[in-house]
Write a structure and sequence with these properties.
It is built from 16 helices and no strands. The protein is mainly α and 418 residues long. The chain has a single domain, classed as MFS general substrate transporter like domains (Growth Hormone, Chain: A), CATH 1.20.1250. The longest helix has 31 residues. 59% of the residues are buried.
Length: 418
């Protein structure tokens, strides 16, 4: 029997960490209503904490990717899990809204940001040559799986036992995953005497740029920002974040509750998005190995925009077939944009691709943060979310044009990996 390549073990453990990170980050969507009922904070106040979480989730990514070059994936990810556990556990003692921002916004945001999609780009770039797109799709789908596992469970715990039990469950889960990362993950194939999976020769060693992780991350941004393709990728991904994590991920449950739907039912629908996203993202990874990622990305944004324009008419107190059709359609598209975006960053920016993707992902979370706060303000001002859905749908059409505008390989690459 052939020995299982170590790359698959690494990918499996990182998948568990990504599953957890996605569930941890998505938890505030379940807690909005319980926190509002207990502390009498406004929807926009609680959304501000979610916005900080989303913002740091993205802005941490490029620095975490560069820090992985210096300290290693194992140390960074294990430390991030401990940080998530600390932030989630401390929320049970909070009495003021600033403490929510500190715990769920800052601590959990920094922790989950260190396990964001830049980690996927780093792992697939180092450990895989064959099936890279498919593995990217599977690891990206881990985000949907985390949502699938955690949202219904946490919604049930928050309703049955209180939101504090849900928060402590997140803390315990994060601590349970940290030892797996520490004992099983290694930084590069050559650390254990292997080649990347599918490689026939040792990849060339690219000298590490001088300076610390922050300097390398900023250097990658400075060089990438000189290209039009970077701004098209970043702009499109900002709209991606606004139309997924920021809007649907944060406000779908309270929006459905506004129409009389039980929170547990709404959380179940959002979890169904995660089920279909698993299939959609894996297929997107497979397609990104076989077709032009620009066209693939453009199609995903176009279809997402159309679905969001329809959503306001689908909310009701009960689940009906049209809403289920939306869930299936939207779920297949939810994070399917990631594999082609990772592929384009690698194609355009070469060895600097993972760190550049970290900055592109940061734009994703900036868009998500703006949408999280903006949708909360729209709800407080107009009494419903309708305008938020329509604006997000229109912006997706803009992202379609951005995707088609990305061009070929940059002449200036940033040496950030070894």
């Amino acid at each position: 029997m052939r020995t299982l390549h170590r790359a698959w073990v690494i990918a499996a453990v990182i998948l568990v960490a990504i599953v957890g990170a996605a569930g941890f980050r998505a938890t505030p969507g379940v807690l909005i209503t319980p926190l509002q009922e207990e502390f009498h904070w406004s929807r926009s106040t609680i959304s501000a904490a979610v916005s900080v979480n989303l913002l740091l989730f993205g802005l941490t990514a490029p620095f975490a990717a560069a820090l992985m070059e210096k300290l290693g994936v194992r140390r960074v990810v294990a430390s991030a899990l401990v940080l998530v556990a600390t932030g989630s556990g401390l929320t049970v003692f909070m009495t003021s809204s600033w403490q929510l921002i500190l715990c769920w916004g800052v601590l959990v945001g920094l922790g989950t940001g260190s396990m964001a999609l830049a980690l996927v780009a780093t792992i697939t770039g180092r450990w895989f040559t064959r099936h890279r797109g498919v593995v990217t799709g599977v690891l990206t789908a881990g985000g949907a799986t985390g949502q699938l596992i955690f949202l219904p469970l946490l919604a049930y715990l928050a309703k049955a036992d209180g939101w504090r039990v849900a928060a402590l469950s997140v803390a315990g889960s994060a601590l349970a995953v940290a030892p797996l990362v520490w004992f099983f993950v290694r930084d590069r194939p050559r650390d254990v005497g292997l080649l990347p999976y599918g490689a026939t020769e040792e990849p060339p060693v690219v000298p590490l740029a001088p300076g610390g992780a922050a300097r390398r991350a900023i250097g990658a941004l400075r060089t990438a920002a000189r290209t039009r393709s970077f701004w098209f990728l970043a702009g499109g991904f900002a709209i991606c974040g606004a139309s997924t994590n920021g809007l649907v991920g944060t406000h779908f449950i309270p929006a459905a509750h506004d129409h009389g739907m039980a929170e547990t039912t709404a959380a179940g629908l959002l979890a169904l998005v995660g089920i279909f996203d698993i299939a959609g993202t894996i297929v997107a990874g497979w397609l990104s190995d076989r077709m032009d990622s620009r066209k693939l990305l453009a199609w995903y944004y176009l279809l997402r925009g159309l679905s969001l324009l329809v959503l306001p008419s689908l909310f009701s107190a009960t689940t009906h077939p049209n809403m289920l059709i939306f869930i299936v359609f939207y779920g297949l598209d939810w994070v399917a944009t990631v594999p082609p975006t990772v592929a384009l960053c690698r194609e355009v920016f070469g060895e600097a691709g993972p760190v550049v993707f970290g900055w592109v992902f940061a734009s994703h979370q900036i868009g998500a943060a703006v949408a999280a706060v903006g949708a909360g303000l729209i709800r407080d001002s107009f009494g419903d979310y309708d305008a938020a859905w329509y604006v997000a749908g229109a912006l997706c059409f803009v992202a379609t044009g951005f995707s088609l505008g990305v061009r070929g390989k940059s002449r200036k690459l940033v040496p950030v990996t070894v």
